[in-house]
Here is the input.
Amino acid sequence: MGSYLVQRLLLLIPTFIGVTLIGFLVMHLAPGDPAELRAAGGLGGAREGVISRNKQGGVDEALVQWRKQYGLDRPIPVQYAVWLTNLATLNFGDSFKDNQSVWKKISERIPVTVKLNVLSILLVYVVAIPLGIYSATHPNTVGDQITTLVAFVLFAVPLIWAATMAIVFICGGDFLYLFPPAGLESLEYSSNWPLWMKFKDQVWHLFLPVVLLSYDGFAGLSRYMRASMLEVMGQDFVQMARAKGLAERVVIFKHVLRNSLIPQVTILASILPALIGGSVIIETIFSIPGLGQLGYESVLARDYPTVLALFTVSAVLTLLGILISDLLLAVVDPRIAFGRRQQ
Amino acid sequence: MSPRLDSRISEKTSTSEVTGGLWSDVWKRFRRNPIALAGFYVVCFLALIALFADFLANDKPYYLDYRGNTYFPIFRSYLVGIGVSRWPPELVNVDFKKLSGARAIFPLNPYRPSNINLLEPLEPPSSKHWFGTDKLGRDVASGMIHGSRISLSIGFVAVGIAVIIGVVLGAVAGYFGSWVDLAVSRVFEIMLSIPTFFLLITVAALLPPSIFLTMAIIGMTSWVGIARFTRNEFLRIRNLDYVTSAVALGVTDRKVMFKHILPNALAPVIVSVVLGIAGAILVESSLSFLGIGVPAELVTWGSILHEASTTTFAWWLAVFPGFAIFITVLAYYLVGEGLREVLDPRLRGLR
Here is the structure.
């Protein structure tokens, strides 16, 4: 186990460098360099005609200065190395938009997005695992088929449609007003509220975003769970358990369930990137001040330091998710740590 | 899906068929699944709509009898488009609906998505505008019919790019194994840990808006699944006797990979290609929803939905285009799942 952990951690290094290098190079794909963008205040980018001609001389001088100040006159590999070293101290530079520290802007928003995503992952597992168990214990019944069909149809519902329909029909438009259309707390929210009121307000605001972020995960996970349980049920030790007269409940929950939960751990790694993508859409639609909304705004404003930092932060989150699910898998199934070398 | 699951699922596919070849057998068994077959018909129906969009929704008539001459303006516009023909002077830039003394047969939906009519903004659905109009008075039904072209073409081209990258990388990794496999697998891991959607909106926002760039970007970020399937298949098939004998006979690596192994490795790849089209259509609609990638003046399913999220009383802007995306994606999923069941013998026992 120890050597497996070391091996996994070592393999993370080239992956991390690869991911950040791609992000770094993409930022340099953009027409115009960051200094020009900064000269244009971030917004609009370095398009022609943004700066009037008679001021051009002064701007050119400032550009040269900025390039020197930010090290943009150095070759790209050097710039990347400098950026990586700064990263070690969480120094992502300053935002082009408002000159605030990028890390400060991001760290303010991390809790919001993490809260949304953790709740969504929990909801996915809480709903999908029982559904999968039900389907597997009643295979090919009407109930199984309806469960599979509903989960499958939900999987095909586009997030942007579901969210727009929610905004139009149940968020206080011309139709129903069941949930708030924006934000994470009511306008009249105060820290003096009793705990249950704060809790109620939170639930009311979080309900729609969390449900919307998680509904498409139900299908995948419940189907994997069903397939995995059916596979385990076909094995000899289950027949053995039944043969020695164990109650069906014990067979299912003690013998089958434990063994079929193992592969479900790895699903976590594939849900995470999808959730981060979903956060961009959900946080933009519902005006939730999280990383996704910051990302969307920064991309539109061409605020490179912020975009690159967000890119890195979400890549690190995803890498951690993959690492955690791999390690969990190795903990519950020791064969993994040994078997991997033979591949 | 985890690599471990993938490799187990694809273990027994593409065993040799004695009668009629693999694909006619696949079609025979595919036909027996009514739900998948329904999905297949919807896919064909959508393709026809996209193909004949100009004939279904157009501000030009099929047939025009004007000042003693007979014209077929829709056909003619194709000829003009490729430079073979020209509009007669009296028909240059005219509104065909307002020609006096003309007899014309219009398509059922006599609008183009670019027809702005500021006198009829945000009209609810009626017999005149089936699915209502948007802020600029453009017909939503027409926008959806022509939008299907954008969605489907982006889906197909993006997945085409993804297939080329994925199959080549997966084949190289699976065939050569050892350090090549290790290196390429690192690339897979990098691609999997990249927040793809975030990378997409970043690249799409940095580059000028364009359909072709959007196709390329979606394709270049969505090949990992296909590559991993191909790799796993190649890893398995590489050790089969017929490959060993081909290598022993001195067949070149390239020929062994693409002529001998690839046809047998395609089955599971096909499933991920069909599912990938649905995925690309979803991504495209999300991008146009966010106003990134596809040029702003183009009407797409996603861009109509976006308008709905800002003018919340106009329910028709939310219901219809979203349903179009949903049905398209569902149809491709159903076909993909149907193919998976047919192509994967492991699942046959479960059903």
Remarks:
- The longest helix of chain B spans residues 140-176.
- The CA atoms of residues 39 and 45 of chain B lie 10 Å apart.
